[in-house]
């Protein structure tokens, strides 16, 4: 199975992910060895905390992209994205291309605050959709207002949102309650993507391969392929693939 990671922090020196190119190379090598062949790099953008310039992001991205091409026999595909922490200017910034979407598509990886109410999350999803984009809710299992009332996920999907959870959460590494919530969504086919959210090699490494094996064992090959292969291919606009989302 050719794995695609749509959420990781491999660009060196632009957020709290890889601090330098040496760590980035080690991360990419490890991910390649585990079967990851396509990556969307998603550096944080959060006002007052992570505000890397587009120039610095592009420079970092090109260095990573060029290295990734040399890995293994066929190399790795790396595309540029962004994990955008919601703010009042998000839609305008995306429309004006002041922040990248996911691989140049209409998909946007949106992060919320753990303090956000469900109504706030719903409102932002609506604004993003009306603005002409497709919101992917980043690590939805981190938001208490949703975890406490998981039935609302169906409403968010109905509005046009797609759902991403982290591999560590799916593997039960972020607590029992979080794991239970992830399994709840999986049983209802409400998970569209699983990302590594990898930041480094030690504290927050990629466990995407381990998670893919777990998902296949628990929910079957078709489900694993949909989440780790087919749905990401829609973001990457790879032709000749069935519509899975």
CATH topology: TIM Barrel
Radius of gyration: 17 Å
- Written as H for each helix and E for each strand, in order along the chain, the element string is EHEEHEEHEHEHHEHHEHH
Low-confidence stretches: none
Q: In percent, how much strand structure appears in the residues?
A: 15-25%
Can you tell me the CATH superfamily? Metal-dependent hydrolases
GO molecular function, one term: protein tyrosine phosphatase activity
Organism: Dorea longicatena
Family: Belongs to the metallo-dependent hydrolases superfamily. CpsB/CapC family.
Keywords: Hydrolase, Protein phosphatase
Would you write up a description of this structure?
The protein is an alpha/beta fold and 245 residues long. It has one domain (3-236): TIM Barrel (Alpha-Beta Barrel). Helix content is 42%, strand content 16%. The strands form two sheets. Strands 3-5-6-7-8-9 form a six-stranded parallel sheet. Strands 1-2-4 form a three-stranded parallel sheet, with helices on both faces. The model has no long low-confidence stretch (mean pLDDT 96).
Give the SSE map.
Layout: E1 3-8, H1 21-33, E2 36-41, E3 44-45, H2 54-68, E4 77-80, E5 83-85, H3 90-95, E6 107-111, H4 118-130, E7 134-137, H5 144-147, H6 152-159, E8 162-166, H7 167-170, H8 176-187, E9 193-195, H9 208-219, H10 221-236
Helix pairs in contact: 1-2, 9-10
């Amino acid at each position: 199975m050719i794995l695609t990671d749509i959420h990781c922090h491999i660009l060196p020196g632009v957020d709290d992910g890889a601090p330098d190119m040496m760590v980035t190379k080690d991360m990419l090598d490890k991910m390649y060895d585990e079967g990851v062949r396509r990556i969307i790099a998603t550096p944080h953008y959060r006002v007052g905390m992570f505000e890397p310039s587009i120039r610095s992001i592009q420079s970092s991205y090109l260095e990573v992209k060029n290295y990734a091409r040399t890995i293994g026999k066929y190399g790795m595909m790396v595309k540029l994205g962004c994990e955008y922490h919601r703010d009042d200017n998000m839609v305008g910034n995306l429309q004006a291309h002041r922040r990248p979407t996911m691989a140049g598509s209409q998909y946007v990886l949106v992060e919320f605050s753990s303090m956000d109410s469900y109504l706030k999350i719903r409102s932002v999803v609506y604004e993003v959709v009306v603005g002409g984009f497709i919101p992917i809710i980043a690590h939805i299992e981190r938001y208490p207002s949703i975890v406490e009332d998981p039935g609302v996920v169906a409403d968010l999907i109905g509005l046009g949102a797609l759902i991403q959870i982290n591999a560590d959460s799916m593997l039960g590494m972020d607590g029992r309650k979080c794991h239970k919530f992830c399994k709840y969504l999986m049983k209802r086919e409400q998970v569209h993507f699983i990302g590594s959210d990898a930041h480094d090699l030690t504290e927050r490494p990629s466990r995407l391969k381990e998670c893919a094996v777990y998902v296949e064992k628990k929910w079957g090959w078709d489900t694993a392929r949909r989440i780790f292969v087919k749905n990401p291919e829609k973001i990457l606009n790879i032709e000749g693939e069935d519509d899975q989302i």
